[in-house]
Each structure stands twice: as C-alpha cells, then as structure tokens.
Amino acid sequence: MQPTDTVADTICRTVELGVTITGAAADSEDRTHIWCSVIDPDPRCPECRIAGQLRDRAERVLTDTPAAGHPVELHVAVPRFVCLTSGCPRSIFRADITGIAAPRSVVTTRTERWILQRIAIDKMSVAAVAANLGIAWKTVNQIAVGAARNMVYDGGHLDGVRHLGVDEHKVRHEALLFSGWR
C-alpha cells in the first residue's frame, strides 16, 4: 500500500474511491484539480491472470463531486503493466479502476450517484447540477437518464411485463378551477 496524506484524503474522501492524493491546485476557472494515484492496483493480466510488470502510468481525468462548493477534477495516475507471459495475447494492460469510474466515463462512480441524488431527492435542475460539477448539461442529462434506465431495466423491476398502461393523470387543481371545472 502506498503512503497516504490522511488529512487530504479524509477531507476529499478519496480513499473510498481507492485513490490517494499526490497533489492539488485551483485554476482560474474556480475548479479544484486533485492529482492522485491508485491504492494497491491489481497487476494481474486480464487475459492470463498472471501478474505483469509495471510499465508506466496513464492519466485519466474524471469529474468528481464538488468540494467546498467548487467543481473538482481528479487526475488519476492509472498504472499500466506489461504482461511477460509467453503466449498471452495481451502485451500491455491498465489496472482495473472500475471501482473509481466506469469504462469511458467522464465522472467518478460516486458522482453518478451524486447526480441522481441532486435531481431526484433535492429536486435540482439538470442545469444546476451541471453548474455545480462544472460540466455540460448534456453530459449530466445523459448520466442521469442512463443511471435511471439501468435502475429500472437492469434491476429486474419489469421482468415479465408485456404491456404497461397509465390509468390516471395527475392534474393540478388550479388548472381545473380556471378551466371552469368545479
């Protein structure tokens, strides 16, 4: 295990992602940048499952939850390994960081949860959530729709359902009064 900066890691809660802070800075756009490295990366090749040799590190930039009201970008140094096993089709591979972020995602896994909580529980608009994170409205909307879709369809909630209908509609009382309904 790598040494950690306990105070910074505790304040930013980076250890829960599996990373430790190695540096930080703020930019002119009021964004906080946090450089970090993966704690105890798995050096085993995804093909042959034999440990490889550390080659270098590739930086992956991810939006994380805001800290002290400021947007945060994590700069994760992801270890890359060389597989030395003869006959293995994989020569170079990255450490698995799916606990930190999904493949090709631009946000951390906890940021996906944070987005859903802000929209569903706090009733924030997608625009407000995007502003808090310092990312585009379209990105936040895609993440929210995708996460909601996964909860409904991948959760098995609709298994066996062939038809879905809506029996009633919710109408605001004021609308009925103004239209002459009593």
Automatic annotation (TrEMBL):
Q: Which residues form the Transposase IS204/IS1001/IS1096/IS1165 helix-turn-helix domain?
A: 100-143
* Record-linked InterPro entries: Transpos_ISL3 (IPR047951), Transposase_HTH (IPR032877)
* Annotated signal peptide: none
Which superkingdom does the taxonomy of this entry point to? Bacteria
Name of the featured protein: Transposase IS204/IS1001/IS1096/IS1165 helix-turn-helix domain-containing protein
Native source organism of the sequence = Tomitella cavernea
